[in-house]
C-alpha cells in the first residue's frame, strides 16, 4: 500500500493527535503501519486488535480512502432522546418526555 504525502500527513495527524478519538487513532495507525509494509498479524499485535479487524480497516481504506475509516451507519432501533420541560407553575418539579 502506498500513500501520497497529503494522505500520510492527515493520517499522522489522526494517529498521533491528542484530541483525536481513540477509534480514529487506531484506524490511522493501522493504515500507516500497512503503508510501511507491515503484515496484518504484526499490525494486530502492535495495536492489540484481531487480524480480522486489521484486515477490515485496511480493506475499507483501500476501497474508499480516508472516508472508509469512518464508522458506517448502524441498523437497528433509532436512538431515543429525552428532554426535560418545565411544568406549569401550579405544579412543582419537571416533566420528562420521550421523543
The largest β sheet comes out as:
2 strands, antiparallel
Helicity, as a percent range: 40-55%
Q: Tell me the number of strands.
A: 2
Mean pLDDT: 85
Number of helices: 4
Shape: elongated
Distance between the termini: 46 Å
Return Rg in Å. Answer: 21 Å
Provide the structure class.
mainly alpha
Task: List the keywords.
mainly alpha, 2 strands, 48% helix, two-stranded antiparallel ribbon, 99 residues
Structure description:
The chain is mainly α. It has a domain at 5-69. It has helices at 5-16, 22-35, 40-47, 51-64; strands at residues 82-86, 94-98.
List the helices and strands and how they pair.
Layout: H1 5-16, H2 22-35, H3 40-47, H4 51-64, E1 82-86, E2 94-98
Antiparallel strand pairs: 1-2
What is the structure about, briefly put?
By secondary structure, this protein is mostly helical. The protein has 4 helices and 2 strands; from the N terminus they run H-H-H-H-E-E.
